Amino acid sequence: MHDGTDTDHEPQSEPRKRVKGIYMVPNMITLAALFGGFYAIVMAMNGRFELATVAIFVSMVLDSLDGRVARMTNTQSAFGEQMDSLSDMVSFGAAPALVAYIWALSTLGRWGWIAAFVYCACAALRLARFNVNTGVVDKRYFQGLPSPAAAALVAGFIWLMTDLEYAATDVRWAIFAITLFAGLTMVTNVPFYSFKDLSLKKSVPFASIVLVALGIAVINIHPPTVVFALFVVYGLSGYAIYGWRRAKGRHTSVISMSTDEPEERGLHE
After folding, report:
1. What is the pTM of this model?
2. By the 8 A CB rule, do 91 and 59 touch?
3. Which residues pair with 143 in a beta bridge?
4. What is the 3-state secondary structure (H, E, C) of the chain?
5. Is the Cβ–Cβ distance between 95 and 57 less than 8 Å?
6. CB-count exposure of residue 65 (10 Å: 0-12, 13-18, 19+)
7. What is the pLDDT of residues 128-158, one digit of tens each?
8. What residue ranges do the domains of the chain occupy?
9. How many Å apart are CA 27 and CA 66, to the nearest integer?
10. Separation in Å, CA 107 to CA 102, 135, 172, 175, 201
11. Distance between CA atoms of 255 and 269, rounded to whole angstroms?
């Protein structure tokens, strides 16, 4: 029997609406990295390949900062993650492929644009796989060559050849091979050390600071040569780790090759 008090229809306070918006600082850095990739394409179209390649390296530096700034300021967001992936696709996927194509690959006819497309497609596949498999990959390693390092291989070679005043047509098959190597290595299951277990908040021996100073001095000897050499070593390091793991009978990959939504949390731990 109803007692006259309707508790089901008592007025309830409306939940507070969440203010929607985006965080300025990390997303401004991401936009700056995106601009670097766009600027590289424009400079390549204008024949300024030294500026195009340097712009890609500047994008790499900015790309390494936006995530760290977001974590330091507690401004991580899903929007920022998506923005970062789209920026990476332009700066480290489309830009290196187009710069390489305009610089030398266009002289190879269909082989040139095929190499450029393979690189661009592999960058997209690598970024998509990274976003899907974030939860199950060993944080100490990347699954395949990271797209910024792949871009550095392509841009670094063009920067070096331009600085040494080599004609693009003389090294067109070399950039063809490097572009294919960088692209296909992005989608392999080869592990590349991520350096994510190095914390900037921990104290380090004094000798570490001396080594950093020496590294800066070595790079300044001839930046195009040293930078390209460093990324060549890194690009081959994954295969060295892969071979060492196989020789020791250990897992050679940090995750399965599946591109499905991962349900394998804890795999290969």
Report:
1. 0.81
2. yes
3. 191
4. CCCCCCHHHCCCCCCCCCCCCCCHHHHHHHHHHHHHHHHHHHHHHCCCHHHHHHHHHHHHHHHHHHHHHHHHCCCCCHHHHHHHHHHHHHHHHHHHHHHHHHHCHHHHCHHHHHHHHHHHHHHHHHHHHHHHCCCCCCCCEEECCCHHHHHHHHHHHHHHHHHCCCCHHHHHHHHHHHHHHHHHHHCCCCEEECCCCCCCCCCCCHHHHHHHHHHHHHHCCCHHHHHHHHHHHHHHHHHHHHHHHHHCCCCCCCCCCCCCCCCCCCCCC
5. no
6. middle
7. 988 887 666 667 788 889 999 999 999 999 9
8. 80-85+94-196+206-247
9. 7
10. 9, 43, 8, 12, 49
11. 10
Between 33 and 19, residue with greater pLDDT: 33
Six-digit token string for 83: 């923005």
- For 65, the token pair is 């900062």
Angle between helices 78-88 and 110-132 (to 10 degrees): 160
